[in-house]
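Section handout 9: paired folding examples.
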Amino acid sequence: MAISTILLDIMFAVYVIAGVGLVIYGFSCYYSIYLFLKNSRTTRLSDRKKILQFYREHSMADLPQVTTQLPVFNEANCVERLLEAVCAIDYPKDKHEIQVLDDSTDECYEVAKKKVEELQAQGYDIKLIHRVNRQEFKAGALKEAMAIAKGDFLAIFDADFVPEKDFLLKTIPYLVMDEQIGLVQGRWGHLNRTESGLTLAQSIGIDGHFVVEQSARSWGKLFMNFNGTAGVWRKQAIYGGGGWEGDTLTEDMDLSYRSQLAGWKMKFVFDVIVPAELPNDINSFKAQQFRWAKGSIQTAKKILPRVLKANVPFRVKIGAILHTTHYSIHPCMLFTALCAWPLLAFFQPVANLPVWAYTVGFTFIFLAAIAPSVLYFVAQRCSGYTGWKVRLLSMPILMALGVGIAVSNTKAVFAAVTGHKSGFVRTPKSGVGQKKKATSHYKQKFPWQAVLELGVGVYCIFGLLEYIGAQKFIIGPFLALYSIGFLSVGVLSFMHYLGNLVEVHKARKDENHHVEGVDLGK
């Protein structure tokens, strides 16, 4: 009995800590909204005036040398689209070097090589740099290529991005006009927003990050991060921050903080939008989120001690803590879900709490819980995209998705905290609008994690029934959301896994028939 009491006391402490964490991260959304709304109109207008002023005073001949770096790894489905888009960028050919940083181990290398040779014949200054060791992954590729880059400014695009023709013309001027700016970050757009409910929900989440959060950090003079792509670095700022380092899975966030601690400024440009492909597979999405979650916590462990010692305002330090540890919300969600049922059933102080205590607690939790939704609403309303009201109908999908990936992201957070090492797992891209390469199939592991997600979902259903039976209806909606979120992600994980197995089997069968046909022709 004593052990049970101690265990319940521990669970209650965990529940309270997790609940407080959710409230803190939730209310930070309101501060981001405040900074965004306060500065949006004046900053965007000022940015437009600066660009107009720059081109009144400078001609194309005055533009500096730029190197565009394109890190790719097994991206056969979209590498040609990327190279064509980058070569189509409106910038003097003699001042635009393009480096294709290919660490591929499949047919992507041959596809990229052929395309590079074709573009070289058209007069573009484009080079293919192929590594076979993948040392330090993306950070290593960028570091090695930077040593031989011609440009003092480095634009970076991942394989699933399609930059607009005027990208450099709209970003380089800020770096030329203000020598303190080390990075100009563009805003992510979407190539396949409406492909499925999953991509639609992701697009709303990404819009929330860029439209509100990145704007708030940049305009509110807080530390912000490079998002790994769709940005332009000043080479001097990279060296000033200590260069690319591969000891975290988010080398972009790591370098951003080190450069800002060295005195460089980061600028987010709201009206420069670079469309990108969203993963339309839940397992690919979870892998992407796992990498971001683990990398962010790794960066927090590495960088926050320096931030806390730095001579920067207190609010900047708090902003950095909340920013780099943001993925801690997923362990908080998972622990509140797991602790709710046993605490009500067996922990008398909770079971006997008066209604007013539940009401006060619910008020804070409710305001914190709806904060992300308010942020997403503001982001859609101010994004400049049409049809935002219709897109908001998919908000419940995003909410369920955010809860459902808590198991995966909790694993990522604990892996980072405990120092468990793992490789850089890329997010597979299908190449929207492109002809898929016959042999581009990504190996899949059985989704064991989905079994756990389904188990937690069923567990939350029993917890929900317990709360309803005890007439504690206030907490019910949260447990209902947890149930739906975990079950949905678990079911989708199995559905997409099986669907991809069928697709791969069919493709291999077609390839075998093709080979047999060639043999017969001989």
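Moving on to protein 2 of 2.
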Amino acid sequence: MPYLFTLLRATLFTIGQLPVVANNRSIIYPHTQTSFYSSLNFVIIMVLLTVVIVVPFLFTVRHNVRCEVCKREPIWGLRYKCTRCPHYNLCQDCFWTGVTTDQHTNAHDVKEYSSSSVSLVLFVFC
């Protein structure tokens, strides 16, 4: 995790220090950037900060169900529940590697759960 913050800090520093070439002739340095480039940098920074804050949280969520493939119980991280097969849950490792059992195929739609009580509205179509 400390490496991730170091990488983020270096990326943000680089974004702020890069000169911008305008009209193929002039160079605009960060302290004289137009509001467009400042807004663009702000959006990039906000996206990076969101990823840094949300992604580590997703891997610490505990679901009190068992993975049908690897039999891991409880499932930590993201949980994938089949919309066709009743009570069919996959852990993120089995889902990302495409491993299934006989009753379920990768053609089935699954719903991704990022918390043990509230579901994300993300549908994954394999």
